[in-house]
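Shift notes (night). Ran Transposase while the centrifuge was going.
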Amino acid sequence: MYFEEKNIVPNSFKTRKVESKGFHKEIIIEDFPLRGKLVYLHLKRRRWRDVDTKETLQRDWNNVAKGTRMTTEFAAFLKEINR
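Came back to this:
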């Protein structure tokens, strides 16, 4: 499965003038979903740049869902697509 972060400015950057500047290196996660079949998740995280300060920014992925190694938003997304 391939997941690419959408080109939507994160809420934490709404007060700044930012632009998308491509992606970080793709991350591949090996997972075993409920049916026990091996799945590879390919994740591409977006990079942002503050237009005024030229600072490179990224979404804070340290806010993880309890008992997982993923963000709460990503965990909710995966739960939704499995319905």
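The first strand starts at residue 2 and ends at 4. The mean pLDDT is 80.
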